[in-house]
Design goal:
287 residues, Rossmann fold, Adenine-specific Methyltransferase, domain 2, 2 domains, seven-stranded mixed sheet, 7 strands
Length: 287
């Protein structure tokens, strides 16, 4: 399966490296694409489905998706004003500490989000207890802040396809999936420590991982095709032991020291319907 579009976001933990493997696992045909943890949407944009539901609890992220779709020209104009300079970065980052932030337009908020996303360290989205972005400056010599071609193609796609954008908890997004839909979960990963769940829009705890497993099982019973990505830990392996687990290795690029960017284990978990389709494909190919 050939990649159709690039994501306009730079996203820590994004699935660009895994796209060839994920493409091989995606069902041959499905009704709608559903992704309850949108993030940077690497798989979503690479598949460019005709129909889909994309959701995330991160309000500013989903606002940016909508601005890319609805106000692309104004967004590009505003992006052109940004500068890849440290003092400027912190001035823009700290706008959410000021009353001014609530009066900013949707275009201004989306432009700020994309600017911080591209020039902040590692494509990380992290907030403090007050919900204020606290990612440090990335010190990148060259940054394509505007990324006009990619943003325009993403806007054209979102306007041409039947894609619903939701700002919601993953359960609410997944509840809209029906039999024959393909659902891809890429949640905050579990590493065995609660402190790993404080960095995103909200805390994502072990309890939430258990809620997610319950939702995964419900979608399986509903007749959906489902894939879930997560860390390769004993807890996750145990949680999904009744489904079909495929270990993979990726290199994470967040560490500043390139010598410490070692491969890390991840899991791709498939539900019964998807697994049966893939086994049938292997069986037919062997004949």
């Amino acid at each position: 399966m050939e990649k159709k579009l690039r994501t306009p976001f730079k996203w820590a933990g994004g699935k660009r490296q895994l796209l060839p493997i994920l493409h091989d696992l995606v069902p041959k045909t499905y009704e709608r694409y559903v992704e309850p943890f949108a993030g940077g949407g690497a798989l979503f944009f690479s598949l460019a489905p005709e129909k889909g539901i994309i959701g995330d609890i991160n309000e500013t992220l989903m606002l940016t998706y909508k601005v890319i779709r609805d106000e692309c020209d104004d967004l590009l104009k505003h992006l052109s004003m940004h500068q890849n300079q440290e003092a400027y970065y912190y001035a823009v980052r700290d706008l959410d500490r000021l009353p001014l932030y609530d009066r900013m337009s949707n275009v201004e908020k989306a432009s700020r989000f994309l600017f911080l996303n591209k020039t902040g360290y590692g494509g990380i989205y992290r907030v403090n207890k007050r919900g204020q972005v606290n990612v440090p400056f990335g010190h990148y010599k060259q940054v394509n802040i505007i990324n006009e071609k990619v943003v325009c193609k993403a806007s054209e796609f979102l306007n041409g396809a039947s894609i619903s954008l939701m700002t919601s908890d993953f359960v609410s997004t997944a509840d809209r999936a029906k039999e024959g839909d393909f659902v891809y979960f890429d949640p905050p990963y579990y590493f065995g420590s609660e402190r790993n769940f404080t960095a995103y829009a909200t805390r994502f705890t072990l309890y939430d991982q258990i809620r997610l497993k319950r939702t995964f099982s419900q979608l399986n019973d509903r007749g959906c095709y489902v894939i879930l990505s997560n860390s390769d830990t004993p807890a996750i392996r145990e949680l999904y032991s009744d489904f079909h687990i495929r270990p993979v290795e990726v290199t994470r690029l967040v560490n500043r020291d390139t010598n410490k960017r070692k491969g890390s284990g991840e899991l791709l978990i498939m539900n019964d319907r998807l697994w049966q389709e893939k086994q049938l494909k292997v069986s037919c190919a062997a004949k």
